[in-house]
Amino acid sequence: VRLVESGGGSVQTGGSLRLSCVASGYSVRYGHYMGWFRRAPGKEREAVAIFDRYGDENYTDLVKVRFTISKEDAMNALILQMNSLGPEDTATYYCAAGGWSPQWSEASNYAYWGQGTQVTVSS
Q1: Rounded Cα gap, residues 33 and 56, in angstroms
Q2: Can you tell me the mean pLDDT for 105-109?
Q3: Residue 10 is inside which H or E element, if any?
Q4: What's the mean per-residue pLDDT of the chain?
Q5: Which residues contact 44 (CB under 8 A, 6 or more apart)?
Q6: Which residue, 32, 30, 36, 38, is CA-closest to 3?
Q7: Contact 87/123 with Cβ under 8 angstroms?
Q8: What pLDDT, on the 0 to 100 scale, is given for residue 29?
Q9: What is the pLDDT of residues 14-70, one digit of tens each?
Q10: Distance between alpha carbon 118 and the CA centroid of its chain, in Å?
Q11: Could you tell me which residues are beta bridge partners of residue 34?
C-alpha cells in the first residue's frame, strides 16, 4: 500500500488549500477508516478529518466548517479542502488509511501512512 500526498504549500491567513492523497494497493472507495492527520511543530499528531467505516465524516472541532474531506473515486484519492486557514493550521498533513476500530482519532488505529505534505499559513 502506498499513499502519496500533494497540494501543500504556503498561504496567507484566510487562504485555501486542497490536499490530495492518491492511494495504490488500497481502495479509497471501499476502505474503512481513512483520512487526514496533522502534526504541528512541538505537538502530537492529531486527527483532522476521517471517514469512518460507514462513510460518515468526522472532524476535529478545530476544523469543523472550515475543512471538508471527500473522495475522488476515479483517482482513488482522498481530498481535504481547507478554507479560512489560520496560522494555527500550520503543520505537516498526513494521509492515513487502513483503520480498524471506531477510535478514529487515534493514530495507532491506522496501518498505512503517507509521507506528509507541509502546510504553512502566515499571518
Answers
A1: 10
A2: 96
A3: strand 9-12
A4: 96
A5: none
A6: 36
A7: yes
A8: 93
A9: 999 999 999 999 999 998 899 999 999 999 999 999 999 999 999 999 999 999 999
A10: 12
A11: 51
Cβ pair 114, 94 in contact under 8 A: yes
Q: What's residue 32's pLDDT?
A: 86
Sheet holding 77-82, edge to edge: 2-6, 17-24, 77-82, 67-72
84-120 b/e with 16+ CB inside 10 Å = b?
ebeeebbbbbbbbbbbeeeebeebebbebbbebbebe
CB 96 within 8 A of CB 39: no
Q: Which helix (H) or strand (E) holds 35?
A: strand 34-39
Q: Show the CA angle centred on residue 63, arms to residues 66 and 21, nearest 5°.
A: 85
- Residue position matching grid coordinates 502506498: 2
Q: Who's near 116: CB < 8 A, 6+ residues apart? A: 5, 39, 92, 93, 94
Cell (9 digits) for 98: 487502513
C-alpha cell of residue 71: 473522495
**Res 112: pLDDT:** 97
Amino acid (1-letter code) at residue 27 = S
Length of the chain, in residues: 123
